[in-house]
Design brief:
This protein is of the alpha/beta class and about 350 residues long. It is about 45% helix and about 15% strand. It has helices at about 20-30, 55-65, 80-90, 110-115, 115-125, 135-150, 165-185, 200-210, 225-245, 270-285, 295-305, 330-339, and strands at about 20, 35-40, 70-75, 95-100, 125-130, 155, 190-195, 220, 255-260, 315-320. It has a six-stranded mixed β-sheet with strand order 1-2-10-7-8-9, sandwiched between helices. A four-stranded parallel β-sheet has the order 5-4-3-6, with helices on both faces. Strand 8 (about 220), helix 9 and strand 9 (about 255-260) form a beta-alpha-beta unit. It is globular and about 65 Å long. The chain starts with 17 loop residues before the first strand and ends with a helix.
Length: about 350
């Protein structure tokens, strides 16, 4: 896969670290032991506290600049990591940014509505408009883009999570990067685990690993949709990304696996398992997860290890998608969980 064919901007030093979690591996082991756990630190992509969307934005902003865009429109939930990273990158290239924030969670909590990612959006001079829950937010973003074009703006619209074939190239690239690191270390990876939401990270990893015949399965821990819908979304995007790259043969449906048993009451609604996972990794390794994506994904992985569904003889890599700034939007809940 010759990725240099596609427009790109460089946003962070690569590769991101691949680290062994010695203390954490011992802490989550069951009575029969546990797997060797490593972490791919895509929370270390530098821009605006980092996160997985920075990889996607290298390709999305690359294409936007190639098209002469001067105004980026995107969307996400109120505490969107994607919007925060997009707003920061857009400022770096002297563009304007408009973000539509969906009230996906019914809450009047001041921390959630004003702190964390929202505060940073405002610091990056992002123009924010709010939308009610349940709308087709990508359609809303396209509508806003059309309004701005009619007013004379040169607009590029980025879907939620940066999750389209262009954005997914970031995780095709990451898959290649990860396997090069593993090969240099002599590390045989049995399973790659990450959060799966808007599907771009998950789909990109599947395409990247399949395209280099790595033989490493990807397990996405869902944060929003039921298993059947999440897997369908990821597979659809993986197929579209493979086609965009010109890969022959497509992506097998069985290459896409999601476990959506750890969503809890819904997207962005905290769970006890998430809070415990956030605390455990922080206290054992000094690494911060986020409450919406990586925290729930880690909670799922811990449970799968402790129930023996991920075997003790395995070597597992957890892809950390960042988002720790979102913890400040959940201050009250986390303080209560630590009490």
């Amino acid at each position: 896969m010759h990725l240099a064919r596609f427009p790109r901007v460089r946003l962070f030093p690569s590769p991101t670290p691949l680290e062994k979690l010695e203390n954490f591996s011992r802490a989550v082991a069951g009575p029969n032991g546990g797997p060797e756990i490593w972490i791919k630190r895509d929370d270390c992509t530098v821009v605006a506290t980092g996160g997985n969307k920075v990889r996607k934005l290298e390709w999305l902003i690359g294409e936007a600049r190639a098209q002469g865009a001067t105004h980026i429109v995107t969307q996400g939930a109120v505490q969107s990591n994607h919007v925060r990273q997009t707003a920061a990158v857009v400022r770096r290239f002297g563009m304007k940014c408009t973000a539509l924030l969906e009230h996906r969670i019914e809450t009047n909590d001041r921390d959630y509505l004003n702190s964390g990612n929202v505060l940073l959006d405002k610091l990056f001079a992002c123009t924010i408009e709010y939308r009610a829950s349940g709308l087709d937010m990508n359609a809303e973003a396209e509508k806003k883009g059309a309004e701005l074009r009619a007013a004379g703006e040169n607009v590029y619209v980025i879907p939620g999570g940066g999750s389209n074939p262009v954005g997914a190239l970031g995780y095709v690239s990451c898959a290649q990067e990860l396997m090069q690191q593993a090969d240099e270390m002599g590390l045989k990876i049995d399973l790659l685990v990450t959060a799966t939401g808007s599907a771009g990270t998950h789909a990109g990893l599947v395409v990247g690993l399949h395209g280099i015949n790595a033989g490493v399965p990807v397990l996405g821990i869902g944060v929003r949709l039921p298993k059947d819908r999440q897997e369908a979304n990821v597979h659809k995007l993986a197929e579209a990304t493979a086609a965009y790259l010109g890969m022959q043969g497509g992506i097998p449906r069985e290459a896409v696996e999601a476990n959506c048993d750890y969503v809890g009451a819904g997207y962005g609604i905290p769970t006890e398992g998430m809070a415990k996972a956030v605390q455990l990794l922080a206290q054992e390794e000094g690494i911060l997860l986020d409450p919406v994506y990586s925290g729930k994904a880690m909670a799922g992985m811990i449970d799968l290890i402790r129930t023996g569904k991920i075997g003790a003889a395995k070597t597992v890599v957890f892809l950390h998608t960042g988002g720790a700034v979102g913890l400040f939007g959940y201050t009250s809940y986390l303080e209560g969980a630590m009490a």
